[in-house]
């Protein structure tokens, strides 16, 4: 006797529901929405993932030019039971902007590029087809700035959906913390506002999980005065021993708790050394206060017991926009001047709790793994230990439940990144176990109840217990809101809100 649960029946119904591409085509065409379908000349170009490890075949990629066209596209996709996803900059690590599955309708936002800076109340209205470099240029032209990451080609849509960390974040928060309102296209095509006063529960959900709730066509953000001086810094240590490289982390944890100012933003970057047992280490960041104060701010870290002397260093004061350019590592901030790049990679992340920093044993195991297995790895790799927390961090000052972002009491967000070696066209199989083992080297030496998390902008579809690690205690409320705002589960993709 087989009995079907309501859930199974609903699933069968959804799978069996008709998907008629002819009707989709007719609807989009009647509304003047440009779209590229399977078999069209541009299809392979417009459906390529930034992460070449993934190939998906969407039913179509639509290029709406107005909010009304976005609405038409979403409603048409929902009516034909297609999975619908937004694409802003297209940098999702697991190609969720292509649906993360075959057969999705991709709503590409690249034609929605307006940025309006409003001096009257220091906000900016940013359409979500913009990329971070273009946002930084437009705001800076008006003397303003926003917290966000360093890569100019990352889209503001995905970035502000799931977080948005940069070196100004300890002073100004994550990108999503500065969103004051948004225009959202719901699954049925209805266009709504979301803010503290209008649809406050949707406003809560989109700051941490918007891809599961709708397509955000624009965000209004609070901006900051571009700081008059920014000191960019890069301290480099070549071929550190395991013990010295471990000290760069343990001393960083101690330093972070020593009342450091919010104007200090930094990360440690680890890479392969020139022999087994050695590592290259870099401290990269920006100081957003007066230039003459920086040496006093950094001194306690550089002079901490056991800290090695840097092999080289760059410490350069300059303008705010020069700092944005410096962190772009040679890429133009104006993203219309050169095409986007690509990679073939696997990424994981780990957010360490402020109240329980990594133990000495965890740090040693982690560094030993990077120095040894990292030397023999067939995949290229790097690790970034980003400073979210420490004293005076604006990220952790935001009450956990005021947005849907999963984790606030974070000291470090660690990104583990491995890619196909140059020249190779596929990611090496051993690269998965290599990176998984790196994360385990920390977890196996941490308390069983360690309250760690993971970062959705470094999204990983191979993460065990992903729902808990990404959404944490927000998940129950997100699921309830999902039923209200996207009852047909139009916006469905790997690691989304079910
Ligand atoms: C080279 C590189 C550097 C990076 N550096 C940083 C960094 O410094 N700091 C940091 O925090 N992160 C960084 N990231 C991660 C980055 O923030 C995420 O990959 C981000 O999600 C990409 O946004 P996107 O719009 O480019 O991607 P997309 O793939 O377009 O979108 C990502 C997800 O958001 C959804 N989405 C996109 N637009 C919308 C919208 N308007 N409404 C609703 N849902 C939407 C998509 O459907 C998809 O699920 C970096 C990534 C790369 C590749
Ligand atoms: C799809 O819709 C078109 C137009 O209404 C119709 O002619 C066609 O038979 C439909 N296809 C399927 C497979 O139902
Ligand atoms: C398809 O490619 C051609 C030639 O590169 C280009 O002119 C056209 O704008 C493209 N269309 C779309 C929808 O991308
Ligand atoms: C800022 O001003 C614009 C008009 O210039 C207005 O539309 C918007 O609602 C204001 N935003 C806030 C948060 O006050
Ligand atoms: C970006 O580059 C394009 C193409 O060269 C140019 O038209 C545009 O004015 C530039 N934008 C800015 C903000 O410099
Ligand atoms: C946040 O809300 C959840 C319920 O969704 C509650 O259990 C938790 O205690 C709240 N946490 C804080 C820090 O307010
Ligand atoms: C997943 O997370 C929950 C809640 O924290 C925990 O109880 C469970 O043990 C975790 N499962 C695994 C496999 O880690
Ligand atoms: C569209 O969806 C929203 C959210 O589920 C709902 O409140 C609204 O009534 C729907 N509109 C129509 C016209 O069905």
Structure at a glance:
The chain has 498 residues and is an alpha+beta fold. It contains 16 helices and 18 strands. The strands form four sheets. It has a seven-stranded antiparallel sheet with strand order 15-12-14-13-17-18-16, with helices on both faces. Strands 5-6-10-8-9 form a five-stranded antiparallel sheet. A four-stranded mixed sheet has the order 1-2-4-3, covered by helices on one side.
Please provide a written account of the structure.
The two termini are 29 Å apart. The strands form four sheets. The chain has a seven-stranded antiparallel sheet, with helices on both faces. It has a five-stranded antiparallel sheet with strand order 5-6-10-8-9. A four-stranded mixed sheet has the order 1-2-4-3, with helices on one face. It is of the alpha+beta class and 498 residues long. Helix 9 (242-256) packs across helix 12 (360-376). The protein has 16 helices and 18 strands. One 2-acetamido-2-deoxy-beta-D-glucopyranose binds next to loops. Residues 85-93, 96-97, 109, 128, 149-151, 154-155, 157-159, 161-166, 210-211, 215-216, 457, 493 line the site of flavin-adenine dinucleotide.
Query: Residue-averaged pLDDT, rounded?
Result: 96
Tell me the strand order in the biggest sheet. 15-12-14-13-17-18-16
Envelope shape? globular
Largest sheet: 7 strands, antiparallel
State the end-to-end CA separation: 29 Å
SSE blueprint:
Elements: H1 6-16, H2 21-30, E1 34-37, H3 43-46, E2 60-63, H4 67-79, E3 84-87, E4 105-108, E5 115-118, E6 123-127, H5 132-140, E7 144-145, H6 156-162, H7 169-172, E8 179-185, E9 191-195, H8 200-209, E10 215-222, E11 224-225, E12 230-240, H9 242-256, E13 264-272, E14 279-287, H10 294-302, E15 312-318, H11 320-327, E16 345-353, H12 360-376, E17 380-387, H13 394-397, E18 410-419, H14 430-443, H15 466-471, H16 475-485
The protein binds flavin-adenine dinucleotide and 2-acetamido-2-deoxy-beta-D-glucopyranose (NAG) (7 copies).
The site of one 2-acetamido-2-deoxy-beta-D-glucopyranose has 3 residues, from helix 2.
